[in-house]
């Protein structure tokens, strides 16, 4: 387990922005630890009281992934870089060779489309 922690910390320190750019991920069972899905309105797998809860959770995650996949190409790319790779607006702008304002516009439009598509069926989810 310690080797895995050291590998993660070395990777984190090599990321743009270094240690401050990538949040520390707490171990399971540590005080205040929360799954990313739980923070976004998805119950954690350990919180599932029945097999049906697990199925519902997987269905909700699938719906979110599909909705992201249906975004316009630039919006999807900006959203993936921002959310999954945790890149800053400036880093996304440099990578895509567009202005930071355009990146912000793409992210805003992507969030709006995801909200419009997912809110009626999933309720409130933080994006």
Task: Describe the secondary structure blueprint for this structure.
Layout: H1 2-14, H2 36-39, H3 51-69, H4 73-83, H5 89-96, H6 100-122
Helix pairs in contact: 3-6, 4-6, 5-6
CATH superfamily of one domain: Winged helix-like DNA-binding domain superfamily/Winged helix DNA-binding domain
What do the pLDDT scores average to? 76
Q: How far apart, in Å, are the first and last alpha carbons? A: 31 Å
Give the DSSP E fraction (strand runs of 2 or more residues): under 5%
Q: How many strands, which pairing sense, and closed or not: the largest β-sheet?
A: none
CATH topology of one domain: Arc Repressor Mutant, subunit A
Number of strands: 0
CATH architecture of one domain: Orthogonal Bundle
Alpha-beta classification: mainly alpha
Taking pLDDT < 50 over at least 5 consecutive residues as the criterion, the unreliable ranges are: 27-40
List the secondary-structure elements in sequence, H or E: HHHHHH
By DSSP (H or I, 4+ residues per run), the number of helices equals 6
| Residue share in helix | 55-70%
- Rg, Å, rounded: 17 Å
CATH class of one domain: Mainly Alpha
Shape: flat
Quick summary of this structure?
By secondary structure, the chain is mainly α.
Explain how this protein is built:
- The protein has 127 residues and is mainly α.
- The chain has a domain at 72-127: Arc Repressor Mutant, subunit A (Orthogonal Bundle), CATH 1.10.10.
- The chain has 6 helices and no strands.
- The longest helix has 23 residues, at 100-122.
- The two termini are 31 Å apart.
- Mean pLDDT is 76; it is low at 27-40.
